[in-house]
Amino acid sequence: MEVVDAVAREVGGHRVGVRLDQFDATAEEHALALHVVSRLSDRGVLYCHMIEPRVDGRRRVSRRLLPFREAFGGTFIASGGYGRDEGDAAVGEGYADLVAFGRLFLANPDLPRRFELGAPLNECDVATFYGAGAADPAVGYTDYPFFD
Fold it and tell me: What Gene3D superfamilies does the database record attribute to this sequence (predicted)?
């Protein structure tokens, strides 16, 4: 919280965002993160971006981030394996203000257009994440095809 306070003093809390990961959190870590989120809200932090826990590569249907959403007064962003329909539902239900599409955006540089058209999506090549297994670290980040 000291870092958040220092940054907020310099630039204003309305310009500060925090991302937290609850992917494999224990009950203790979950409780700590909930405490942190409520303290971020008290400080006027602009957004809280949280990674949704998933099971077997799929998002849990339990809406486990709901307590964090309720504890945070600013913009709440959820991410973690969402597709278009699931993302629309999360925002439509008020579960999140925004949904981040990290992997989908990486593999589909024209993702909003593909969503708009209902076009097929490129598959992510996980083997190239973070430059792993590629002689050229740009492989997997800049070479996915656009939809024609």
Answer: Aldolase class I
